[in-house]
Structures are given as structure tokens and as C-alpha cells.
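lol so apparently i was supposed to do this last week
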Amino acid sequence: MSDLTTPAAYTLEDFRGSRKRMRTEHLVRAVLFLAALLSIVISVLIVASLVGEAWTFVSQVEAASLWSDGWFPRRGIYDIKTLLTGTLIVTVIAMAVAMPLGLGAAIYLSEYAPAGVRKLLKPVLEILAGIPSVVLGFFALTFLSPVIVQRLSSEATQFNIAAAGIGVGILTIPLVASISEDAMRSVPAALREASYGLGARKITTTIRVVIPAAVSGLVAAFIVAVSRAIGETMVVFIAAGATGGSLFSTDPFKPGQTMTAAIASQAAGTDQVRGAGLTFQSLFFVALLLFAITLVLNVLAGRFVQRVRQAY
Amino acid sequence: MTDAPMVGSMPTSAPSRGGATVFDVHDVSVHYGDFRAVRDVSMQVKQHQITAFIGPSGCGKSTMLRCFNRMNDLIDTARVEGDISYHGVDLYDPAVNPVEVRRRIGMVFQKPNPFPKSIYDNVAYGPKVAGAKGNLDDVVEQALQGAALWDEVKDRLKESGMSLSGGQQQRLCIARAIATDPEVLLMDEPCSALDPIATGRIEDLMVEIKERYTIIIVTHNMQQAARVSDRTAFFTTEVSEESDRRTGLLVEFSDTDKIFTNPADERTENYVTGRFG
Ligand SMILES: Nc1ncnc2c1ncn2[C@@H]1O[C@H](COP(=O)(O)OP(=O)(O)OP(=O)(O)O)[C@@H](O)[C@H]1O
Ligand SMILES: [Mg+2]
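anyway here it is w/ magnesium ion bound
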């Protein structure tokens, strides 16, 4: 100890630290690195497994059948735009439902609700998030379709894209609400105080201070919700009605097919699918496409969030 | 800035003694939950005067200041007891809309809190929410001039207010507050992050604008209180009987000269001469 009082007596040894600690540190680092590596390896494996079969499909399929009319893989009709259109319509309807309701709920919870009400409502929202999508699919088919969609349009069939879209929207409300609420709650209270101190109303403060300050989180909520809607399978599978195949349709009141539902409906009987032409391989192609779209979305989201951050 | 009605309401009594009573505070106590932060404050704040609040950390200066524009409403646990009237109107009457109160009574906070918006938009925010239309360039320039910030930022008004240094941010917040042309300006340690030059300019500004406004300033800087204020309130803390936490109270409130040269209370004297605690 007396050495410590005389700095002149320091040697390099004094600063080397415990070797044992250093070794533990290295070990921890290695384990964490392996964990990170594993998740990358898994992702690569998934993509690789998709690419192989998808390539078989692309190289063997007749180009004309990729741009025909309708998605009937067992009959060799692989019109991708049918699936893309169906997916797009479902996603747009879902977002039209989920964004206003989810954002509204988030604004209420974060800015308006008294602490007690918030404590009560947040778990309710989480229960909604926990509803299995199968249940929501049936809800869409047996309630949304007859009670809402068929009222909106007398032409609507029982199985229709609109009911599926609304169902998917309901499914993503909690996601939008909770990410948006987190984003808005993390806006410093001092900014709200600044706004109120200048004589702003609550609604003005929310729209002009809280939302702009939380915008990166809100964009994230939107993108995550879009990804979720594009990837949602069960609700569309049950409520949109196209099992096995679908005609090309832009009418939300008619049955339709999304990418995920197309895969699910074929994969439900993989054994029969294998060997039935390129049906099996076409599913991999669709899956790869799905993966690519989600990837692009996430990259875009990242870019956007970064640009917003820089502006502030 | 035309303020005919203000001039019209100017008092006829000696200006140095201030004019009409702006705030009449009677027996005010503030609780945060079960904790009583300040108790039994009574005071009168006069128009066109600078009133300084001084006292040790935690004695409730900020808490009291935030009562004057109902800022404590925003804290769930805060509860204000007693009466505070503004030009004779009970500020805590249920019919009073705090938004209307805050349009007239502006505030500069203890910690700089610029919006993540451009410098220009920060300053223009108050006038805009109050309904100002059209070009606000002049208002923005005047406010920034007033806060001694114009020369430093005039070429970068589009840049984010967050990109400024701490002291610049505080002056931006001052500019933002005066841009709304309030009747009263509540300033919570507005110079604590400023260098002596900027501090001097803010003090000049205060003295200059008290012709039109009424100012209450919290400060830890004795010289500043002595230099700029007309009246000084000294707060301190005392261990309260009901709990062992320290509750703030107003010890003495009188002319600044008297507080610094001939205080009536021993605690005041100890504090202003630096013999506190
Ligand atoms: N939001 C709050 N919730 C609970 N207690 C609070 C809150 N704000 C302040 N207090 C307490 O109230 C008392 C007075 O605080 P206040 O901020 O008014 O002191 P102050 O005189 O401004 O101090 P300083 O000079 O350090 O700024 C302190 O004990 C503080 O801990
Ligand atoms: Mg304070």
C-alpha cells in the first residue's frame, strides 16, 4: 500500500491488471461472438435453402406462365402479379386500419390517459397482441366479412380480401400502438413543458412537438407493421378464401391470394406437391421474393430513420 | 411591438416602487405526493419589477415559480394549496384555462430545452401556436437580438436548435419565451450555463424589458440578484414536524437593497454573506 503513495515507484506491472480477469473477459467475448455468429449462420442457411429450389423453379419455368392470369401452381400457372396484388391490397387495407387506430391508441395512452387508465389499458392491448391469428382469421370470416364487408358492398362474397385485410389490420394494431407509444413516451418531458410553457394546447404539443420528435420510432412502427402484414398467413388463408389457387383480382370484395397464403395452402400437403410439376419449387421462389421484399423494407426503414435522426 | 393597453395600465405611483400587484400569493403550499416541498408562502409581486428568488438548493424556488403559470399541473403528483391571483383573477379557479395563463406568463426553464426543430422554428413556435400568421422573420430576429444570440446564429437559422452549445441553447430558450411577448416572464436560473458576457447581456435585457414586462428570476448568483432585481425573496428549508424531509419556506421578502445590506432575519444574513450551513 505504501507504494501507492509514491507514484515514482510505479512499474508497468502495476498497470497490467489481473490476468485471470483478462482471460474471463476474452472468454465472455468469444461466447458472445459465437452467439452473434450463429444467428448470421442461420439466416444464411435459410436464404441458401430458399435459393437452391427457387433457382430450379426460375430456370425450368416457362416465362409466359409467370405473367399469365391467376395463380394455379398445380396447373402450371404461376402468375406472380396475382400474389403481389393480393398481398398489396391486404397490406394497404391492414395499414389503413392499423395505423390510425394504433397511432390513436398510442397518442391517447402516451399523452392523454391518466396514469391509472394507462395501467389498465396497456395489458388489454397486450391481450389483443396475444390473440392467435387463427382465431382472428375465423373472426374475420364469421364476423368482419358478413357484418362489415358485405354491408359495405352487396357484391362482396363471403370469402374476400377486404375482410382478411381488416383482420390483419386488427392483428397489427397492438404492434403499431406499442412501438408508437414507446417512441412518444421516450420524448423528454422537458420538450412538452417547453411547448406548454409557450401556451400550446395538448393537441398542438402532440402534433407539433411530440410526434415530430418521435418520428423515427413512428416510421419504425409503420415498417414493422407492414412487414408483419405482408408476412401474416393464417388470417388471409382462412378469410380470403383462395385455397390452392386464385384468379387475378384487384377487387377487395372478391376472394384473392397473398404470397404467404399461397405457400401455406400448397404446403399443407407437401407430399402431394412434390413431383407435381414445379409446384413445390414455386413455393420457394415465392418465399424468396417475400424475404427480399421484407429485406428491402427494413433497409429502407433504416435509411429513413437515419435521415430523420440527422435532421435533428 | 405596440402595447398601448400596457402603457394605459401603467401605474401612476413611483416607478421604482413598482405598480399594480401582478401576483398576490396567499398561504401557498405545494405538495409532491405526500411530500410538502414548500409551505405557507405569501407575497405580492409588482408590475414592471424584477423579483429575484434566492435560497439554497431544494428550497422550492423552482416549485414556487412553476405555480405562477400552472406548470405544476403537468406533474401528476403535484398539488398546490392556497391562493394565487393574477391581476385579481384566481389562477387556480376551475374556470381558468392554463393555456390562457401560459400565453400571458412565459417561462424559461432551469435546463435548456430547445425543440428538435430549426433555430428559426424554435423561436417562431410561440407566436405560431398563438395564431400568428404570415412572415415571422422580424419577430424571430428581434427575439434573438434580445437574447443576445442573433450575431451567433443569424447565418444558420435553419440549423437544429439542438446543435447549439448549452449556453446558446439557453439563450435560444430565452428568445423563444420573449418572442411570444408575454406579460410576465418567469426565468429559472437563466444564466447558470452562460459565460459572463452573455450573462451581462441577459441582465441588460431584463432591465430593458421590465418597462414592459414583469420578471421573476430564480438565481444562485447573489451579485446577479443584487444587480438586476428590485425585490428579493429569500427561501430556505427547514425540517418539518410531520416528516423528516426538508420543506421550503419563504424567510424574507423585501427590497433587494435591504435583503443584501440590512436583512431582518438572521438566516437571510447568513445566506447572503455566505455563512449558510
Ligand atoms: N417533480 C417532482 N416530484 C417530486 N419532488 C419534487 C419534484 N420537483 C421537485 N421536487 C422536490 O421539491 C423540493 C423543491 O424542489 P425545487 O426544484 O423547487 O428546488 P429549487 O429551490 O429550485 O432547487 P435548485 O436550486 O436546486 O434548483 C426538492 O426537495 C425536490 O426534491
Ligand atoms: Mg430550481
